[in-house]
Amino acid sequence: MPPPVTGLFVDLEFPACVSSLVGRANTPLAPLSERITWLRPQEICAAPHLFPENRREALGGQGILGDCWFICACSALLQSAALLHQVFPADQCTWEDEGYTGSFTCQFWRYGRWVKVTIDDRLPCLGHKLCFSHCQDQGAFWLPLLEKAYAKLHGCYEALWAGQVVDALVDLTGGLVERWSFESAEESFRDEIVSKMLDLKERCAMSCSVLHSREGSGDLGQFHAFTITDIQHGFTKDGESLLLFRVHNPWGRSCWEGSWGKSSDNWAVMDQKERSRFLSQIQDGEFWVEKEEFFQQFNEVTMAFPVNEEDHIQSIWTGALLSHTQQIYGSWIKGQNAGGSRNNTSFPDNPKFWLRVREPSEVYLTLLQKPRVEIGASNDMHSSRKLQREVSDTAAPIAVGLHLWKVEKRRFNLQKVILTPPVAGTSSHSYDRQLHLRCELSPGYHLLIPSTFLRDTEGDFLLRVLSNGPIILSEIASVPPVERASEDVMPGIWETLELKGEWKKSNSAGGSRNFPSYHLNPAIPFWVPINSQLVKVTLRQHNQENQCHAIGFHVYLVPADGSLSPYSQEPCASCIPHSHSLEVSKICNLASGQYIVVPSTYLPDQECKFSIFISTKTERKPIKSKETLGQILEEISVISLMKSK
């Protein structure tokens, strides 16, 4: 054994000790953690290198850590040099370079941005061999280093035990990922997916998973992910066409003795040349599966959208480059805007966004939940920030959904719009960390509403829109939540109208009723509908908090003949005395009819912009929707990998 290497970078944030291996997840890794040692690559083999010359030898193998989902996703990086260098930046000094320091930096796309994670190259070993991921080429270390950086991002290696291939693909590509379930799928749907896989096999990472064992497939394990490395047509001696999938098992050993296993008699239906062509293309851990058997044994397929050299995502459906991207961060806050699904009358309270489409476009709407566990990442090459490793049981994603409506103009009746069927929407609220909708949208304005399944469920999200045509994404300003005056007065459903105005000196800043210029103030009209007597009027000045004017307002009924002189009659409701506040409000009992509200500053000629919010209590019709809740996600880990090879 070579002596330990000294004088190299040591990562104090992710030390070579038990705390970097296990947290509190109580996985089978915990009992082994005390036996694990940490070695640098030059202490493991004579000639370490990052990447093998043969790309096929860069395929990953799984060790004693249940992170097959991550290892399979890493195959995406082997499809694109641009992606590989994005995640594993080039020109880093390695073991044979004079400038080698023992540190490496990787990047992951997390919650809307690329974050850098720097590690030292001490890797977990058992018996002087890597005990977690490794490459087919035992001297290649790109994958174990990337795995360590990903473990640091999550707090410890154990945090990678069980996960979703789709989540790792998003973290590695920053793009879109499609997942298809074949449970009860029609044959036409399967054929469409196979056609898509054949077209894109050279440019897209593809994975397949077994979520539960079926009869005769025990060798494939349960909750296990595999990489699809090729799809080829073959021919029997009689000229019959066969479609075979080449599948790689990250366990790194042969595990399949199905109809087209290596020793199967089925190969006899091919002539010697054709048989040799297929069998010569498999290496350790790979096997061939015929199309029908593939759909019998595997439950789902995951495919990452290709990313070109300019870092543009390409649609797998049309080939269009999704070169226009915008994103906005948002939150669901209990008691404010966590309205729940369309099953709830509070659905309109959810955050709302405008999407303006300039020309007919293929558009992808994505909703990404913020990780609920702190991560060990920063924007700096070497972060001094303390790494937080606490892995919490509350880290699981919440059930979310997304719906979109086309509206003819930006000023619209929200209640009427959401009672109509959406242009696009999730069929059920799902626990996916990222979900997306594909739409063909016409020019104009569209209303986007993300929601949680249950009302008052809190969470943070990123709304991201990708399109092949110009788009503008913006947030619709939220209306202040209606304050409860008392439990018997304020419960119910409220519709709010926002109107904007301005007090201008010598023009519309007339001051209070104490001054003869009062009639110069803006007069804002509004209508109280039938069966809606309870109205809340809110006046908000757009000013700095330390520069507030004293503000107030009066409400007047408009006579049937339309004539009105506000300064000559008594108001039917008032919010006085004037207050030096950013916002004042008044709850009024008003009969159905036409009204005006006259907002004012106490003194004349005080300039400021303002907003008036008219909140009307209404008997809202129930939203005709029966939202459903998606299944809890089956995480892929595989405990049975502990079997010896």
TrEMBL record:
InterPro entries: C2_III, Calpain_cysteine_protease, Calpain_domain_III, Calpain_III, Calpain_III_sf, Papain-like_cys_pep_sf, Pept_cys_AS, Peptidase_C2_calpain_cat. The keyword Ion transport does not apply. GO terms for cellular component: cytoplasm. SUPFAM superfamilies: Calpain large subunit, middle domain (domain III), Cysteine proteinases. Pfam families: Calpain_III, Peptidase_C2. Residues 8-303 form the Calpain catalytic domain. The keyword Coiled coil does not apply. Keywords: Hydrolase, Protease, Thiol protease. The active site is at 68, 224, 249. One of its GO terms (molecular function) is calcium-dependent cysteine-type endopeptidase activity. This is Calpain catalytic domain-containing protein. It comes from Eleutherodactylus coqui (Puerto Rican coqui).
